[in-house]
Amino acid sequence: MRRDHARTWTCGRCDAANVQKLTKYEAAFDRKPVRDEHCAQCRAVGHVKYCALAMPTIDAEILEWWCADSTLALLDQDEDLLLATAPIDLLLEFYEDDAKVRDRKADLLAALALAFPMSEGAERTRLRSVLLRDRALWDREGFLTFAERKALASAIAR
Fold first, then answer.
1. pLDDT digits (tens, 9 = 90+) for 69-122
2. Nearest Cα to 104, choosing from 86, 128, 116?
3. What is the pTM of this model?
4. Distance, CA of 98 to CA of 105 (rounded, Å)
5. Structural element, H or E, at residue 13
């Protein structure tokens, strides 16, 4: 696999910039702490001053991996916010295909609910129909906050 992505960090001991090349899979799902890595310059371990990871764009390949393995996480928290940045057509393709979505249907529905206010045109119309059809899944306590449910219900009613 190609290593087109990078995790970078600055050593807290010598201020050296370190770069670790990653595959798309590693960049999307590997959360191994850089504190376990050796600085390329001084070889210190555990002295991380700054760290950054360039998250790959969510595409069909990443969604396939994510849906196939329920232990994978794109983020440790607020994963639905990141998913909401993916193309709505792609999210809907996976959401509406039970063979693809597997155990991630609720996660994708949360992302679609978050993406709705930003959608436009035909995409918004298609998304509205899905959210109206599956309202019983998202309009309940514990899925979205009361304010989020109220705002979404109001938005899709327009």
1. 999 999 888 888 999 999 999 999 999 999 998 889 989 998 999 899 889 999
2. 86
3. 0.82
4. 8
5. none
